[in-house]
Design brief:
Elements (H helix, E strand, L loop, with lengths): L1 H29 L8 H4 L2 E9 L14 H13 L3 E2 L8 E8 L19 E8 L5 E8 L6 H23 L8
Parallel strand pairs: 1-2, 1-3
Antiparallel strand pairs: 3-4, 4-5
Length: 178
């Protein structure tokens, strides 16, 4: 008798869990994604703005000049062939601003409490030229290193990741959050 009762309760519990799972799955599939600004993936003309770099990053820990990120990102945009790069923001569909920032903060912060050592980062902010509103922002951190060569490689890796993020964001195939 005890086995029958356990079997009945087990069956009831299984049916409840199955029903709840189906309801949650249906809710998830009917929820709409937040709107995505279509201009980000339909733009043809881009003005790339150089917002510069925070002081103290060149020539150490990174080699080159404070225009390094701008020059490399500009070259990546040019080589993609997807956009026409214009010299005047008034001619552009989007204004894209690139900045290398080095936030200050705690040294050796406790990451388990949601805090971490601030790392230099590349920030790409996409503006609607007509309204001047920010449409999207992409950020890639540059990992720290001990050697100049490694700092430079990490810089290039972060810039490559930012280019990949940009390509994913501006792709007509996938207008979703990268």
């Amino acid at each position: 008798m005890l086995h029958k009762t356990k079997a009945v309760w087990s069956s009831i519990l299984s049916i409840i869990l199955l029903t709840a799972t189906m309801v949650l799955a249906q809710q998830a599939s009917t929820e709409k994604a937040p709107p995505f600004p279509p201009k980000v993936y339909t733009a043809k003309k881009i003005f790339l703005s150089n917002a510069g770099a925070d002081s103290g990053l060149f020539p150490h820990p990174f080699s080159g000049s404070s225009d390094r990120a701008y020059n490399q990102f500009y070259a990546a945009l040019q080589s993609s062939g997807k956009f026409t790069l214009v010299a005047d923001p008034a001619e552009a569909d989007l204004v894209v601003q690139l900045q290398l920032v080095a936030p200050s903060g705690p040294k050796d912060a406790d990451k388990t409490k949601g805090s971490s050592d601030p790392l230099p980062m590349l920030r790409l902010t996409i503006f609607d030229r007509a309204t001047h509103y920010i449409l999207w922002t992409l950020t890639e951190s540059i990992e720290s290193a001990n050697l100049q060569k490694t700092h430079d490689r990490n810089f290039d890796d972060a810039l490559s990741a930012l280019v990949k993020d940009w390509k994913g964001l501006t792709s007509k195939d996938a207008p979703a959050t990268p």
